[in-house]
Amino acid sequence: MTDQRRAPAPATDPGFVLRFQDNREPAIDAGLYRVKATQVLPGVPGNTAGYLKDVEETFEVRAPQFALAGEHVHAVNPAPEARSDYSTTLAHITLPDPLLPWMRRLDEPEAKEVAPAEPWLALLLFAEGELPGDPASAGLTVPMTAEELLTDAPGVRRPHVRHIEGDATALCHTVEIPGDVFATVVPRTDELRHLVHVRAVRPDAGLRGETLAAGDYAVVVANRLPDREHEIRYAAHLVALEGCRSVLADADAGRLTADVRVRLAALHSWSFTSDPAPGGGFPGRVRHFLFDRDGGERDLLLRVPPPPAEPPAGTDPAAYTTARTRLASGRVPLAYGLETGEQSYAWYRGPLTAEPAQPLPTPPAGGWTSAAHLMAYEKAWGLFDAGWGAAWTLGRALALADADFATMLTAWHAKARTHAAVLAQRLAATGLDGAGPEVAGAPAADAPGTSTAAPLDARAQGVTPRALTPRPFGTLLEELAAGGAASRLLRAGTHPAEARHTSPPQPFPRTPTAGRRGAGRAARTAEVLADPPAELRSALAAHLAEAAAPISDWLQRLRLLHGLPFPDLVPDERALPAESLRLFYVDPGWLTALVSGAAGIAITGESDAALARIAAPWARSGDEDPTPRAGVLVRSALVRECPGLLVRPYRGHGDTRTPITVLRQDVLGPDVLLVLFEQVPDEVELAEPPEGLSFGVDISLDGKRVIGLRRVDTPVARQIDGEAFPDPAGTDGLDAHLRPDPYGRRALLDLRPSDADGLLRALGARLTELDQEASAEFGPAGLAVQLVNAPRRQLIARGQAR
User: Fold this and answer.
1) In sequence order, which residues have a C-beta less than 8 Å from that of residue 713 and are 6 or more positions away?
2) Which pLDDT does position 430 carry in this prediction?
3) Which residues of the chain fall below pLDDT 50?
4) Neighbour tally for 387: CB within 10 Å
5) CA distances to 188, 483, 484 from 477, in Å
6) How far apart are the first and last CA of the chain?
7) Bridge-partner residues for 17, per DSSP?
């Protein structure tokens, strides 16, 4: 066993250590064995066979031969029936038994075994139309018994094995491959060992895709890359090559033709569809985000392209400069009708801005009650800035459109009014401080020349929590007894025969006394709410907290821009063209106006406004709900091609940077992604999702297939920045080291280990040029290290968003 990884390569992200090994040959192959023991006594004359008998035992070492149970497959990549851009991916299958690929031999019964042993497993990839029995590449196989598989048939090449283990009549899955297709697709005999390696994982990484779990595994990698231009469905078959050395030799020599079929056992089969991304996948699209065709940096701020700095002839320079400044800030001019009927335009800017927004003006005492309060007027030009006013109106419209939210908010205000009136009445009563009929700091009720009703603010100074809680039933009985009501009820109940004369009903008074009593109660409530004591604020908020929770949740979603029409976020398509990425600030004043408009639909007067200020969590100053401050908008097919695209914001740079909370990341449409950050970042990282371990090649900035190089000396597997193979990529990139597939497209790895022009030795020579001396022992593990496809990333610093 050889080990290409001299030392494990620690990884801080995502926190596991991998060790790739060339192979792990078992001490004994699978098969039937006979052990014979003969005993001899030295120095004893005569024949001892009569009492020293030979002992012979037969035993069998078993391993999967023509079928593979589901528990013998840990993972496959790409996933079955997956559909994505796999044009740079080499399919692979992971087996939990690290010895399995070397448990059997390619040699036929009459052949002499050779060393080192090649693996007897290979992963073959077939495109649509290449297999007659599976023209749609759905991964179909033909069931037959092991005996039938090994039976001669006209025009069929089959395996020749020494021994069938188990039941020869058990069914297995088979695939028949035209000879010319087999000769083109199958790896050369000396290439087989370089496409199988052992992987040791310590500990579990828990990534998506192929879940990396602690343990030792055998990995079989295909040698064919899917087409990079056409959408094609592929079938992957893990085939058994035991007893196929002569078939492989004929394939190596090109002696297999289309009139011959190669019948093999397919141990595991699946299919997937490769749909190449026209823009070059992740690298090509991200490069287009950042640079134009001439290599110049793009403006990454969310705004329409500003006009030239020099004003056209005949234009007022001051007006032109002002308008250009407004456009640079992210505003756009929209048609605006004045109340007088005149048609003009007003500046509009949504919550997403190209520069930090100015703060929102201080709201009036009663809050904003109309959009007009939030319209900014530019006297110099006679124009309105309607952004905040539009936000208030939009919030109101969204709230009214949601019947459930409107009902919850109206019910909360009704409950708040009722409870506030009860608390105000208790504060107005005497004796609520627990000190008797007097209120702390107020004259006694029976003192000469004084009033029994002390001023409200004086009474409130002695308020205790008991005054703002439900009145005990015992206290209520005491009050009934003290007022004489109890004795009157007792007398009425014990003297029923007493004559009672009731006066005839009087006409209904024109001025109801209840109205006057209600007016007094409302006046007391308004007086308390004008300057409520802290105890009342706490009691009112606590009583309404349960009813307020779903309202706060709805408004918080609104604060995170859920449910807003997209044109209100991006009013001009030129600010976010197709295949673009834009960074933005978030205007907290716009969000405040939006929430204020939504929360104001149930406010019917000053008391409701005061109650909201006192007890509504959404109206308190210093609200702790997270508010977005910046974000990213992506409009690109990358959103569809790369589901799970990662957008990571950071404060600071380099090793000292710290991550920022992502408050929202949502796909708003087939190709639009919105991400909101809690703070303004210094760096934003775009990254492909971690899909587990995969193998393949890379795409250079100019669209050529290359292999991004990794170190083979310590620290093993770390990327060598800026280095790739071949270098320079030239006009063909890696195509010079790829063999044509059955359709003549360059797609199969041309390893040729013994040839200096083969991919394996040429790759090793390139690493040696980079002072990677361990490349002299380049083997299966070394090749696997170079073919590992880590998720690609792109870092955008704030300075790039000019």
Assistant:
1) 771, 772, 773, 774
2) 46
3) 1-14, 204-209, 430-465, 508, 511-516, 622, 800-802
4) 25
5) 101, 10, 11
6) 56
7) 202
Residue 513 has φ and ψ, to the nearest 5°, of -70, -25
φ, ψ of residue 772 to 5 degrees: the values are -100, 85
d(CA 237, CA 446): 102
3-state secondary structure of 130: coil
b/e per residue 734-766 (b: at least 16 CB within 10 A)? bbebbbebbeebbbbbbbbbeeeebbbbbbbeb
- CA 260 and chain centroid, separation: 49
- Paired strand residues for 233: 273
Q: What distance in Å separates the CA atoms of residue 139 and residue 130, rounded to the nearest whole number?
A: 12
Question: Where do the H-state alpha helices sit in 531-646?
Answer: 534-559, 566-569, 588-599, 606-615, 638-641
Tell me: the pLDDT tens digits for 93-124? 999 999 999 998 888 765 555 555 789 999 99
∠ CA 566-572-576 to the nearest 5 degrees? 80
659 prior amide bond cis, ω within 30: no
Orientation angle between helical segments 534-559 and 588-599, nearest 10 degrees: 110
Query: Closest by alpha carbon to 121, among 200, 59, 30?
Result: 30
β-strands 695-696, 89-90 pairing:
antiparallel
Placement of tokens 């823009």 in the chain: 279
The Cα 158–Cα 144 span in angstroms is 13
pTM of the model: 0.67
Task: Give the bridge partners for 274, in sequence order.
Answer: 84, 232
Q: Which two tokens stand for residue 358?
A: 């100015």
What is the pLDDT at residue 178?
Answer: 97
Residues 17 and 6: their CA atoms lie apart, in Å, by 13
Residue 564 DSSP SS3? coil
Query: What is the SS3 assignment for 412?
Result: helix
CA separation, residue 461 to residues 429, 439, 614 (Å): 13, 9, 18
- Residues 679 and 505: their CA atoms lie apart, in Å, by 72
Two tokens, residue 106: 């390619």
Secondary-structure breakdown of the chain: helix, strand, coil percentages, each rounded to the nearest 5: 30, 25, 45
The DSSP element (H or E) to which 739 belongs, if any, is strand 738-740
For β-strands 383-385 and 698-699, DSSP reports them as unpaired
Radius of gyration in angstroms for the set of CA atoms belonging to the chain, rounded to a whole number: 41
Token pair in block for residue 205: 């990484």
Burial status of residue 596 (CB atoms within 10 A of its CB: 0-12, 13-18, 19 or more): buried
* Largest Cα–Cα separation, the chain: 149
> How long is the chain?
802
Measured in degrees and rounded to the nearest 5, phi and psi for residue 120 equal -100, 10
Q: For residues 471 and 494, what is the distance between their CA atoms, to the nearest angstrom? A: 30
Phi, psi of 132 (to 5 degrees): -60, -35
What pLDDT is stored for residue 38 in this prediction?
80
pLDDT of residue 205: 39
User: Which tokens go with 124?
Assistant: 């073959």
Q: Quick one: pLDDT at residue 704?
A: 86
Give the per-residue pLDDT at 352.
95
The DSSP line for 209-243 is: SB---SEEEEEEE-SBPPPSSS-EEEEEEEEE-TT
Q: Which two tokens stand for residue 747?
A: 């797609």
Identify any residues that bridge with 739 across adjacent strands, giving them in sequence order: 748
> What strands lie across the sheet with 719-725, from one edge to the other?
698-699, 705-710, 719-725
pLDDT at 751: 95
Round to whole Å and give the CA distance between 130 and 220. 22
User: Given the structure tokens 């040696």, which residue do they identify?
Assistant: 768
How many CB atoms lie under 10 A from the CB of residue 91? 26
Q: What is the three-class DSSP state of 569?
A: helix
- Structure-block tokens of residue 78: 């790409």
758 beta partners: none
Task: Count how many Cα atoms sit within 13 Å of the Cα of residue 580 in the half-sphere of its side chain.
Answer: 19
* Cα distance between residue 143 and residue 171, in whole Å: 6
